[in-house]
Amino acid sequence: WQAARKAVVMNVSDFAAKGVKPLAALASLGLPSNITKRKLEEVAEGLNAGAREYGVYILGGDINEASDLVISISMFGMAKKGALMLRSGAKPNDVVAVTGFFGKTSAGLKILLENLKAPESVRDVLLEAVLMPKARLKEGLALNSSGAVTASIDSSDGLAWSLHEIAKASGVGFIIDDVPVAAEALEFAESNGLDPVELALYGGEEYELVVTINPGRWDAAEKAVRQVGGSLINIGKVTAQKRVILAVKGEKRVIKAKGWEHFRRGQR
Fold first, then answer.
1. How many other CB atoms are found less than 10 A from the CB of residue 252?
2. Residues 145 and 45 occupy one common structural domain
3. Mean pLDDT in the chain?
4. Which of 157, 180, 186, 238 has its CA 20 to 30 A from that of 39?
């Protein structure tokens, strides 16, 4: 159920980053020969739940046999002509902003994949970040309507990687002076001797939006997001110098181009 819902959310998040309203989807399933009727029902229920959550209709799809469960979604949506939020429009002195805090998914994955322990007070929240992510669709549509965004991407491959993708596409750099780490990730990091900033920068599967904003339109962007119940956090600015730098408490360090890179066997 959760995997099927998440497959929908992942696609919706890509649309959110472009300012596109999703309308319909096709679902292609690869099913192992020994899958039970109940498991198949759970896949269908998860797809339906994700679709309903974001106002999407699943029109059909395809089913084949596979060695493992495969869920592939193709999504279709609408946007005004010429109004897509691309990765390539960031300009020096633009504001860099995100729609939420980071680190919870990184921590949750370390619990699930590396068997690290988490304080009981935050464990459920961290696992929910992995299993029940949310796409920032309302925020993406609001930002697009504000006309304030110069570049946009979602953070599904990690905050650091997303910053580098915009920098590369736009031919710019960034100075980041605030990495918004979730309180639960801070507590997890402290209990496991980890760097919370590393958790926040180099995770993945966090479906926040990473955007650059025309500084003269910042108030309009912030207001638009607030009106749909979201928040916009200023984390730095765009520079002409083509480097991605973290500058906190008088210290500077390079933010590495590290995160999830497809077709390269995971993190780099």
1. 11
2. no
3. 95
4. 157
Please give the average per-residue pLDDT across 9-21, as a whole number.
Answer: 98
Residues 46 and 115 in one domain: no
Of 6, 47, 4, nearest to 204 by C-alpha is: 6
- Total domains in the chain come to 2
Q: Which residues contact 251 (CB under 8 A, 6 or more apart)?
A: none
Q: Are residues 20 and 105 in the same domain?
A: no
Do 44 and 169 share a structural domain?
A: no
Distance, in Å, from the CA atom of 258 to the CA atom of 245, rounded to the nearest integer, reads: 13
95-98 vs 209-213, strand pairing mode: antiparallel
What average pLDDT does this structure show over 26-42?
A: 96
Question: What residue numbers bound the domain in which 134 lies?
Answer: 95-267
* pLDDT value, residue 266: 47
Q: Please give the helix or strand (H or E) that residue 46 lies within, else none.
A: helix 37-53
Q: What are phi and psi of 133, to 5 degrees?
A: -70, 160
The share of the chain scoring above pLDDT 90, in percent, equals: 92
